Amino acid sequence: MVSSLFSSLRLAELTIPNRIFVSPMCQYSCEDRDGLATNWHLVHLGSRATGGSGIVLAEATAVAPDGRITPEDLGLWSNEHAEALRPTVEFIKSQGSIPGIQLSHAGRKASKTRPWEGGVPLQPSGGGWSVIAPSEVPWPYDEEPPKMRVMTETDIDRTVEQFRDAAEYALEAGFQIIELHAAHGYLLHEFLSPYTNRRDDKYGGSFENRIRFPMKVIKAVSEVWPAENPLMVRISATDWIEEGESWTLEQSVRLVQRFADAGVDLIDVSTGALDPVAQNIPQTGPNYQVPFGETIRKQADVAVGTVGGITSPQQADAIVRNERADAVIIGREHLRDPYFALHAAEELGVEDEIEWPDPYAYAV
Ligand SMILES: Cc1cc2nc3c(=O)[nH]c(=O)nc-3n(C[C@H](O)[C@H](O)[C@H](O)COP(=O)(O)O)c2cc1C
Questions:
Q1: For position 339, which CATH number holds?
Q2: What is the residue range of 111's domain?
Q3: I need a surface site. Which of 81, 82, 167, 221 has the fewest CB within 10 A?
């Protein structure tokens, strides 16, 4: 049977009501709250749940203070952080959507100002901190980068624990899905790619060594995350770096097979953002990353969510119907239109497959 955008999707023991997911998008909106969620998160994520998307994924959420991109990032390293997220999670569920959270550590891309403040490196005197990374490969800022420390094995073990603890806090907050962020040049991706991982210990060098830390994170998270709840991972399928060694689609296919064997239920396939030396990055036009997800889905036989340049209902529906992906993960179009899913059902002529919230019924 052909799946469509509004057919349900079974992931682990959960039934997702439709195949439209809200892509994780940093909001940098925890002003002076040290990573605690605010009303902004409730309204931002809550309105996308009201809009009918099957899964609402909260932004890259730091598992530790030094894993934040900016001081205003969302964090999840204490019971208090879990409590602050609970009203948002409960609201998402009340709308029939499934709440998920992306857990992340920003590695060498941490400690900077927000994009609308220039995204410039923050020094400790300005509220920044020293960053950790697999190897001494600083982000090539125009200004002086934050101080960098190469991770020891003790740091690696501690970070694995931080991911595990964050998964427990996510459960405590009521989230039903975790997505691990292993893309976009953040810490897990930095270990995967030989461009940023130049280690000569058991965490660097060969493919097996470079995947060791992300695999440990998955194992640790799986120990506390219930098997009935989906575990997803976002990867960058390629670094878009042609000169020298880098992360490629071929390695992604191998990695994803290992992730699936370790119990990952869906791979969210993005690309790039490892380093500005990247070349030949495609224009972020329609479906610009779909071919990567499609290849991974075929070759690795795992459920795939595809992201990037998906803006119209027909386009989204065609991706699912043609089995190019199991779900569409939509970012910027959800910023323009929180009710994308409701509007999509209307445009595709399948209004019966989704319900507007009762208080809005007069508008339909
Ligand atoms: C404002 C903004 C914040 C983002 N933050 C994150 C994030 O927290 N985690 C992540 O994996 N990707 C993040 N992204 C990337 C999006 O999730 C998405 O992959 C990208 O925008 C491409 O999809 P789109 O064309 O549908 O927007 C962000 C993108 C935007 C526009």
A1: 3.20.20.70
A2: 9-363
A3: 82
